[in-house]
C-alpha cells in the first residue's frame, strides 16, 4: 500500500505543480527561506563530516538531511520546482507568467534563506568576526567557494561548460529525489527514497544552484577571493541554467511523459 | 498512510500545545525530570563515542537516542515547548499565565532531572568521590563545561553573542525534530525523522539549554573551574534566550503560519 | 497506526504484568532459560566485536540482538519484570505471593539458561578443557568477571555502592527498552525502539543482573579468580537490588503513574 | 498489525511444517538447490568482506544476505526444516516416513546446489583451473576447509565434540532466524528479524551443515588437503547431528511447546 | 500485508512480463535510456567510494542506488527482462517476435543511455578534454575497461569462459533483485530487498551487460587501449549471453516454475 506506482507518481507530479503554483508570495518566501537555510546547514554538516573523517563520502552520506526535512515539511526548493512547474505550463494548466512568478519567488526565498544562514553561521563561528583564524570547516568553505568560481573561470569556456554539465547531472539527481519521495506514502519510505539521489550528486561533486547560494557567499564572508560577479557569472547563472535543463529534461519530462500520458488501464509494472 | 502532510502537522502542533498546557504540575515534573535525565545520559553516551573513536561525528550520531525516547514516550522538554506553547497563546487559546506556568515547570523538571542524573553519574563514575583521577569521558565533560562558560566569557560580548546565535541555530533544529516526529504515524518514522535534526545540532556544536543543565553542573562536580554564576550568566540564560527565539521563530511560527492558517481545501504538496 | 501512544503503553504495561503473572512455572522456566542463554550469546558477540575492532562501542552496537529476540518472542527476563509485575501488585490485581513467585521463577530460569550457555560456550571454546590458552574473547570474559567482583570489592563500600548505582542506571534503561518496544505494533518498530536503551546501558558499562549471571560464572569456568561468594556478595545481589530500584522507580512507576492514572479523554501529545 | 505474536508464530510453525511436508520432490530439489547455492555465494561474499577489511565481523554482517533471500522466497533449507518438520511428526500430523523423506530431499537439494555453486565459483575464479595461484578469498576457503575438518580431527574426540557443540549452538540461532522471520508480516520486518540470529552464529564461528556443504568441497577444488571422508566423518555428519539437536530442541520444541500448546485465550505479552 | 508470498510473486512475474511486452518503442527507449544512465552514474559513485576508502566493499555497498531508482520508477533494464519476458513466451502468451522486439529495444535504450552518460561524465570530468591527466575514478574506469576486455582475451578461451560464468552468476543475482523487489508492497521493503542481490554481484566482481555498456566505452573515452571489437567480442556479447542464461535459468525459470505452476490452494510457507 505504501508504494506508489510510477503512473500515480506522474499524476502526483502534476498535482504538486498545480498546488505549488497556487501558493501566495508570502508562503513561497517562508518555505523558500527555510529550504535555503536547511541546505546551508546541511553543507556545514557535510563539510564537518568530510574534514573529521578525511572522507568526502562521509560528507555526502550526511548531506541529504536538509533535503529530507524540506521534502517531509513540503518546503519550496527552486531546483525541484524546475522539473515540476513547467509541466503544468506545457500542459496549458498555468500561464507562463504564473510559472515564472513562482520560480522567481522561490529562487528569491532560497537565496535569502541561504545568505541569512551564511550570516548566522559566520557570526557564531567567527564570534562576530573577532576570531580571524578560520576553522577547518570554514577553510573548506573558502576553498570550495574559490574552486566553484575562480576554478572554473581559470579554465575558460571549457571550465564553464564543465560547470554547466555538472549542473545538468546534479539536478537530474535532485529531481529524481523529488520524484522518488513521491513513490512512498510513508515517512521512512520518503526519507530513504529522497536521500538516495541527493547523496549521489553531492558525492560526485555536481553543481546545485541553492547549495551554491550558501557556499559561495559564506566563503566570501570568511575571506574567499571571490567577487559578486565571480559568484554570479562564473557559477550561479551557469549552474542554474544547467539545473533547469537537467531537472526538467532528464527527470520531469522523461518521467512525466512516459507515465503520465499513457491511456492504458494496465498497471505499470516494476522492472 | 503513515506520512502526515504539513497541513495536518500544523494542526498537531496546536493540539499538542493545548494538551501540554492542560497537564498538572506533577506530570510536568515527572515527564520533565525523565527528559532531563535522558538528555544527560545521551551526552555521556555521545562523549564515550567521541573519545573512543576520536570522531565527534560518532558522538553526534548516537546522541539522538535520548530525544527519541522523549518523543516516543511523550515526555516534556522545555526547548521543544518553546516552539509550541506560545502558538496557543498567540492564537488566544491559553493565557500568558498558563504559558509561563507550563514553561516554568517543565524547565524546572528538566533541571532537576539533569542535575539528579549528573549526581548519579558522578557517584557511579567516581565511586562516591574516591576515584579522583577522572576518566576520558569525565575529562571531556570538564573541558566542555569550561569551554561553554569561561570560553565564551573570555571573548567578551562577542563570545556571548556567539553563544546566543548558537542557541538560536540549536533550537531551530531541536524544534524541527519535534515537528518532524509529527510527520509520521509509525514508530520507525518518528525515530528517524526526529533524530535527524538532533544529530545536526549536536554535530555542529550548537547550544542546547537542557543539555547544558547536565554538562555544566556535571563538569562542576568533577572539578571544572566553573562557578554557579558562570553557569547561569555566561551560558544558561543566554542560551535559553537563543533557544526561545530559534525554536519559536524559525520553526514554530514559520511552520505553523505557513501551513496552519491556509484555508484552501487543496492538499499541500511535498516539494 | 503503528505508533502506540504513551497512554496506551501504560495500559499495555498493566496487561503484560497480569498476563505474565498467570504463566505456569514450566513456561516461566522455558522462557527464562531461553532469555538467559540469549543474553549470554549476546555478551560473547559483543566481546567479539569489541576485541576485533578495539572499540567497545562496536560491542555495544551489536549487544542488543539477544534482547530483541527476547522481546519479539515474548520471553521472560527478570530485569524487565521488575518494572512490570510490581505495578499489578501495587494496583492490588495480584498478591505479593504471586509477584514474588513469578519473579523467583523467572530469576531461576534466567540463571539456569545463563549458566547452561556458559557451559556450552566453554565446552566449544576450550574443546572440553583441552585448549588451556584462552582466546581473546575468553580473556575479556575473565577480566570482566574479576573487575565486576574483585574490582568493586577492592574499593570497599564505595565500590559496592558504585555497583549499586550502576545497577539502578542499567535497569532504568533496560526497562525503557521493554516500554519502548510497546510503542510500536510493527516488528521493525519494536526492534529499533527496544534496541536503543539496551545499546546505551551496555556502552556505558552499567550492571545488569542477567548479563552477570553469564559473564561471572563463564569467567570462573575459564579460570577467573572469583569465588562463588565473590559472585553473589560483591555483585549479583547488589546489582539485582539496584536493578529492582532503577527499573521499578525510574521506568515502571514513572511511566505508569504519569500516563496510566490520567482520566482525561484528551489524547496525550508527543513532545 | 505487522507484528505477529508468539502464539500466532507457534501456529505458523506448525502450518509451515505441514505445508513443507506436502511439497513434491521436484519442488524440494529446486528450492533446496537454490538455497544451497545462495548460502554458498553468501560465504564468498563474507570472506571477501573479511579479507578486505581484516575484520571477520564485517563478513558476519554481510553473510545473512543469502538467508534473507531464502526466507523471502520461501526456499528450502534443511537446517531450518530440522526445527519444524519433526513438530508435525510429534503431533502425529505426518508419518515418520514423510518427515524423513522431506528432510532427505531438502538435504540432497542443498548439497547439489552448494557443490554446483562451488564448481561455478571455481571455474570463474580459477579461469577453469588455468590460474593456479589462489586469490585471498580462495586462500581463506582452503584454510577454513582444512580447519573445519583436519583441525577438529587433530584434537581427537574433544575436537569433534567441540564441532558437535558448535553445531548445536549454530542451529539454535539459524532456527531462531526462521522463527523470527515469522514474527513479521512485512518484508523489512522479516529481513531484519531473520538476519539477526544468522549474523550471530556466523560471527561466533559456529558450524552450519549447509555452509559446510559449500566451503569444504570448494576448499577441496582449490587444493585443500581434505579427503572426502575427512569432509563427512570429521565434520558434515557430526555438525548435521548437532544442528538437528540445537535447532529442534532449543528452538523448535522450546518455542512451539511454550506457546503452541497454551489453551488460554489471553494474548501472550511481550517482555 | 506488506510481504508478498512467493506464489503471488510468481504471478507478478508473469503480469510484469506481459505489461512490459505491451510497451511502445518510445517508452522502451525512454525507460531504457534512463536505466542505462542510472547504472552509469552508480558505477562512478561506486568507484568514488572504492578509491576514497580503498575498500571495494564500500563501492559495492553504494552501487545499488541506481538499480533502486530503476525498480521504484518502473524503468526498463534488459538484464532484468531476460528473466521475465521469455516466461510469457514459454507460456505462449506472447510471440517470439514480441519477445525479441522488446529485448532489442530495451537493450538499445540501455546502450544509448549508458554511452550518453559516459559522454556527459567525460565532458564534465575532463572539462571537454582539456584536462588530460585522469583523476582517480577515471583511472579506475580505464583499468577496469582494459581488464574486462584485454584481460579476459589475454587468457584465451579460459578467460572468455570465465567472463561467461561471471555473466551467469551476475544475472542470477540481478534477477533475484528484480524478484525480491516484488516480495514487498512498500517502498522501504522494495529498496532493501532489491539492493541485496545487486550488492552481492558487484562486490564479487561479476559481469553485468549494462554496467559494461558504460564502463567500457567510458574507459575508451578516457584513453583505455580497448577497441570497439575488444568491447563487443571479448566482453559484451559473451557477458550478455551469460546474463541471459543466469537470469532466465537460475531465477526466472526456477522461481516461476516452482511457484507459478502449483495448483494447490495451500499458502506457500516461508522457510
What does this entry look like structurally?
Five copies of one chain form a homopentamer. By secondary structure, chain A is an all-alpha fold. Chain A has one domain: Glycerol uptake facilitator protein (Up-down Bundle). Helix content of chain A is 78%, strand content 0%. The first copy, chain A, contains eleven helices and no strands. Chain A has helices at 6-21, 25-53, 56-62, 65-72, 78-90, 96-125, 136-154, 156-181, 187-203, 209-221, 228-260. In chain A, helix 1 (6-21) packs across helix 11, helix 8 crosses helix 11 (228-260) and helix 10 runs antiparallel to helix 11 (228-260). The longest helix of chain A is centred in the last third of the chain and has 33 residues, at 228-260. Chain A is globular, with a radius of gyration of 19 Å. The two termini of chain A are 18 Å apart. Mean pLDDT of chain A is 95; it is low at 262-271. Chains in contact: A-B, A-E, B-C, C-D, D-E. Chains A and B meet through helix 1, helix 2, helix 4, helix 6 and helix 9 of A and helix 8, helix 9 and helix 11 of B.
Strand fraction band of chain A? under 5%
CATH architectural name of chain A? Up-down Bundle
| Chain pair sharing the greatest interface | A-B, 58 and 52 residues
Q: What's the helix count of chain A?
A: 11
The biggest beta sheet of chain A is recorded as: none
Q: Name the CATH superfamily assignment of chain A.
A: Glycerol uptake facilitator protein
Oligomeric state: homopentamer
CATH topology of chain A: Glycerol uptake facilitator protein
Q: Fraction of residues of chain A in helices?
A: over 70%
Kindly name the structural category of chain A: mainly alpha
**Rg of chain A computed from alpha carbons, rounded to a whole number of angstroms:** 19 Å
Globular, elongated, flat, extended or rod-shaped: what is the shape of chain A? globular
Instruction: Give the domain tally of chain A.
Output: 1
* Unreliable stretches of chain A: 262-271
Query: What average pLDDT do the residues of chain A reach?
Result: 95
DSSP strand tally of chain A: 0
Helix/strand order of chain A: HHHHHHHHHHH
- How widely separated are the two ends of chain A? 18 Å
CATH classification, class level of chain A: Mainly Alpha
